[in-house]
Design brief:
about 110 residues, alpha+beta, 3 strands
Amino acid sequence: RGFSFIESLIAILLLTIMMLTFGEIMLSALNRTAQGFYQTIASEQLNGLAEMMVQFPDQYSQFLSQWNQDNQKLLPEGRGEIKEDVDAYRITLKWHAGNLRLEVYR
């Protein structure tokens, strides 16, 4: 005979739930991909500054301003800071969804 009205409504309801669930999974995957992308950029930025600090230990402050400008361009709300300790520099890079820290020993 065919499908009844109730059966059709149930099928549409199940299909809607499946599509919404799939959409949520896709959005979550995109969000995690973006977080991984920013984590990679932050890591590259930290390593680049650390290399400059090793190569030019007395002149790293000259590179700091440009480094922070690059951070603001590459990362959403990106900002970095350096704290000097007795035996190491502690470089921290923060952005809207995370932060990353690196220590460069003298």
